[in-house]
Design brief:
Blueprint (H helix, E strand, L loop, with lengths): L12 E3 L9 H8 L11 E3 L8 H8 L8 E10 L2 E10 L3 E2 L1 H9 L3 E4 L2 H8 L17 E3 L1 H5 L3 E4 L6 E4 L1 H4 L5 E3 L4 E2 L1
Parallel strand pairs: 4-7, 7-10
Antiparallel strand pairs: 1-2, 2-9, 3-4, 3-6, 5-11, 8-9
C-alpha cells in the first residue's frame, strides 16, 4: 500500500479496517460500523512513533507538506445556565478554532472553552494528543471547517498517540453529528 499523502514506510500503512487492534475501542467500533459514501477501506492507518505525535515534530519527520494536510480535533465545552454540552471541532493544523465566536454561537452557549484534558479523554475514550473525530459519542456535534472537507486526504489522530489516520476529506462531512461550519478555523 502507498500513502495518499506524506512520506511513510509502506510497511507502516494498512486500511483502517485491517488494523482495528491498533485503534481505541470507540474508533475501532466506528470503523467497523462505517457506512458513508467513502468506503472504510479508504481510511488508512499509519503506524507512527508516539514521540512524534505532536504536529510540529510529526511534520519534521514525515514531510513538511503534511502541515497543510493535517487537521486537529479538539473537544470544547459550551456552558449555558447550569448545563454543559460537549462538541468536537475539526480544523486544519494551520488554523485555530474560533471558540468564542463561531463555536459558542453554534452551540447556543453563553460561554465556550476547550474542555479539560481529563474531560476530553474521559468522555471520548481516546488518548490526549490523539483525539480523532471518528468514534466520538453519537450525541456530540462534530463541527468541521470546510477547508478540511475540501482536501483529498487529511491526516488526523487515531485515538492514540501512536498512529495516525489518513482520511478522505469528504468523509468528515459524513460523520455522525457533523456540521460543516464556515469560519470555524481562523488564521
Amino acid at each position: 500500500m502507498h500513502a495518499p499523502i506524506g512520506h511513510f514506510d509502506d510497511a507502516a500503512l494498512a486500511p483502517a479496517p485491517d488494523r482495528l487492534d491498533e485503534l481505541t475501542a470507540p474508533v475501532a467500533d466506528a470503523v467497523r460500523r462505517w457506512n458513508g459514501a467513502v468506503p472504510a477501506e479508504r481510511i488508512v492507518y499509519v503506524d507512527t512513533d508516539p514521540e512524534w505525535a505532536d504536529t510540529a515534530v510529526f511534520v519534521e519527520h514525515y514531510g513538511r507538506e503534511l502541515l497543510e494536510q493535517s487537521a486537529n480535533c479538539v473537544v470544547v465545552a459550551g456552558k449555558r445556565g447550569g448545563g454543559t454540552s460537549l462538541a468536537a471541532c475539526v480544523v486544519l493544523s494551520t488554523t485555530r478554532v474560533d471558540v468564542n465566536g463561531v463555536v459558542r454561537r453554534q452551540l447556543g452557549a453563553r460561554k465556550a472553552s476547550f474542555a479539560s484534558m481529563d474531560t476530553a479523554t474521559g468522555e471520548t475514550g481516546m488518548e490526549y494528543g490523539g483525539i480523532t473525530p471518528i468514534g466520538l459519542p453519537a450525541d456530540w456535534p462534530v463541527l468541521v471547517d470546510p477547508a478540511v472537507v475540501e482536501l483529498p486526504y487529511v491526516l488526523v489522530g487515531s485515538g492514540r498517540r501512536r498512529g495516525k489516520l489518513l482520511v478522505p476529506g469528504a468523509a468528515f462531512a459524513e460523520l455522525p453529528g457533523a456540521v460543516v461550519l464556515e469560519g470555524l478555523g481562523v488564521a
